[in-house]
Amino acid sequence: MFSLTERNLSDDWYPADKTDIANLVIPKLGPNSTLKVLSQIPHDVILYNLPVFLHILLDTWRTCRKPEESSEPIYGSLDLKRQAFAASIKNIKSHLERIFQRLYKYCPVEFIEGFIEVFFMENPIALEYEATSAQIDLVAIEILVATPTISPQHIFSTLLDGIRQRTPGMQMNRRKPILRLGKLTDTSIMRFAEIYCGNIITAEPLAHLWPLIHAFAKDYLSQANAYKNFLPGLLRFLTVVLDTLTKYQGFDDKKTRKDAQDLYQRCVDYCILIAGRSFDQSLWLRRSTTVYDETASLGSGFSGDGSDSMSLSDTIASDISRNVSTSNVSDLEKKASWKSREDIMIIQVNAYLASAVIPNLRLLVADQDRINSLLNNLVYYVIGPAMRTKTG
User: Fold this and answer.
1) How many other CB atoms are found less than 10 A from the CB of residue 247?
2) Pfam families this protein is in (predicted)?
3) pLDDT over threshold 50, residue 303
4) Staple partner for 51: which of 79, 83, 114, 144, CB 3.0–4.6 Å?
């Protein structure tokens, strides 16, 4: 933070040896410096407000984006000013990269989770499962993955450990305790992982991460009754991951592919039970005898002609404060349609099965017997009850 404005401050704290700027973390301040109070803030307070600082740095990065070059030639002093401005921008971005690198070095888990918080504060609509890539600003994720020394392996391990830590009853494998627990939920981090896999990471590093993903998903599927609200997000995540891996030539080991297909089949089977309200009938709402409740029960976001049956919650995008210091992702997520209304979540599971899972079963499951088993379950638990209700 200090290094962004170091050339505009007095020389009371600016080092005489200009070559030592790269190693400057917190400058020495003079007794009359207006920044003196900042140097006295306790470490834990700064750490607790890390997302706020990251948001400021991210906005600074946006401001310093390289402006579009004009096609018209520029001569004289104006050209010199443009060159000086470009050099200043480059210098500031270089300092930002150093700050990001140092923050990641000293608090890697808190750094990654802080960026997740910033991402959802800037993109509350991303908490809706039906949000598309065109509605989401990926700058926060792009800056995160561009941080020097960071790797997809560490990002993924941090995400999966963060999910486990926020899931009641799930065993934790984290070796080093985190200093700040972010204001996140297991489902929001799972949603972030889905977006990260679908838009940023490539197939090669994802193939190396598959054993980690497989073990993670297996832990949740082995206790599906306890974590059924987590399974729709897990299905979306696995669909994105396996859609990328099955098209990658490096993911060609037969046993690995078979294990992946078996894992995916289990997850789809559980989500079919959720879609048919048959996972645990004593716990799931059964206000209607059909899978699709009446239009009136879904509110204004549902239209009978299906044209906008899964419309996004407008309140998430417009009415919620995006201030990182006063809002948190957990409260934002409670306002998502799938979180606030169980019947809407079931409709969204049905829609995802129909649009993303079933058309790709040959790619994601491959084995015809497995495909037939999934389709038979879909007919028995979802389509059959719906057809009987309509004909009755």
Assistant:
1) 10
2) DOP1_C (PF24598)
3) no
4) 114
